[in-house]
């Protein structure tokens, strides 16, 4: 019986690393690369175009060129295709769709002149492409990438053979003409508390979870400020959050978490998240009650005992 073969999702190296390549000189400073090959906009001056920044109206076509550079000592063959971009669920990073996935935006509108190209060792090949915007395209940002997918499949051992195809993509920032509407919301704010049974007997912490949702049609660079207030409006915590996506793409939502070390063990209040970006400001809130379990259980047991005692006395009084 033949070992089953699983083709994993290829890894997309959408990085802006400032590395020198041995391909007839150097690649642009912000070229997307993985150490073996790079993909970047064709330019007359080195490093003048880190990404594709394009503007077009609905129903129009723009033309440009992409360069694929091979820094290895052997020829490499790539499949070229356009891909839509999205924010990853894990950390909101910039990622693009695979070749097998359906493209609905910039990825569907990009057409390289060659969909398969072989690049000689330590050389670069430049390929023209067109981007045709449909007449009914929505205005605003449509981010994507031009991807060079290595035809080779790296296989591993084990009971199930794993195959990995690698790819590198040059980002495409396309803005379609028309009204731009920035919109942002903070949704589904929750607070999960971890407290000791007895106040002061240990440390406490809480995990704040929330969703950032770009409801508009332009890319946003969000900032989020956290503020926690206790009884009588006392400020318990106030800080700007750091683990945020550099770019929140249109119509994307990401789930983020923030740990609150030293959260209150006995308090009652509210946590507020204020998200801001250019021309937008939105807030999300969640209330909390910090009540240690052991004292609460003792109080509940005392209240229950008192209630039972009262019923027993009433029953005896009615029986006499």
In brief:
This protein is mainly beta and 320 residues long.
Summarize the topology.
Layout: E1 5-7, E2 11-12, E3 32-33, E4 37-41, E5 52-56, E6 61-70, E7 76-87, E8 94-96, H1 106-109, E9 110-112, E10 116-119, E11 123-132, E12 140-150, E13 154-155, E14 161-164, E15 166-176, E16 184-194, E17 205-214, E18 223-229, E19 235-240, E20 253-261, E21 267-277, E22 280-290, H2 293-319
Parallel strand pairs: 1-14, 2-15, 5-15
Antiparallel strand pairs: 3-4, 4-6, 6-11, 7-8, 7-10, 7-12, 9-11, 12-15, 13-14, 16-17, 17-20, 18-19, 18-21, 21-22
Strand content: over 45%
Q: Do you know the CATH architecture of the largest domain?
A: Sandwich
- Helix content bin: under 10%
Number of domains: 2
Q: Would you state the CATH class of the largest domain?
A: Mainly Beta
Spans of at least 5 consecutive residues whose pLDDT stays below 50 are 1-29
Structural class: mainly beta
Task: For the record, give the distance between the C-alpha atoms at the N and C termini, rounded to a whole number.
Answer: 87 Å
